[in-house]
Amino acid sequence: MASLEGLYAGRIERLDLDGGAATTAIRKRALETARVGELGIDGDEQADRKNHGGPDMALCVYPAEHYALWRKRLGRELAVPAFGENLRVAGRLEDDAAIDEVWRVGEVLLQVVQPRVPCSMPAALNGERSLNAWMRESGATGYLLRVLQGGELTAPAAIEVVERPRDAVTIAELNRLRYREPGDVAGLRRALASNGLTATWRERLEGQLRRAGG
Predict the structure, then answer these.
(1) Regarding beta strands 59-63 and 87-90, do their DSSP bridges make them parallel or antiparallel, or are they unpaired?
(2) Going by DSSP bridges, is the β-strand pair 13-17/20-24 parallel, antiparallel, or unpaired?
(3) Domain map of the chain by residue range?
(4) Average pLDDT, the chain
(5) May I ask the CATH class of domain 3-165?
């Protein structure tokens, strides 16, 4: 069964990270409970509002299972949360979670809408400049959620998958199309049929489809 293992929020601050000082909200603090609305967790901030936040990128999810992968690859323990996530979940990896899938967590309804695109901040926070490339190559990117019904979230909590498309397109499939097989016309067409896909990813996939001659 899937579960919410951790709940996190952060404020914009000036941090001295690997590679230099940065204005960011990548460093999150753990919460036992939080109010969640259309824009995510109350009090959570985003320094780069073009690529983070807003109704279509309200919550960032990172699977708890990936921490073992990164501990092994980096050869050390990681602080939690290490990837700027709002929700650390178990039992819902990228090849499980699908676009348009809806979760119930307590009174809150959440919809899976797109992969997380790794930016420079996780690498800087963890002191490993190759980390973002490794996340893309491995497919361990995490993903983003839209809030369909707000309310109180508490961690830990059970995640109930209440809706899932019959022809589900998973987060792993979208990562494959973006990073490894960008010219897969059939795959691109199938992904574009997902109603809940964000406008940003729809435009990106439509551009790939045009370039692939589809």
Answers:
(1) parallel
(2) antiparallel
(3) 3-165
(4) 92
(5) mainly beta
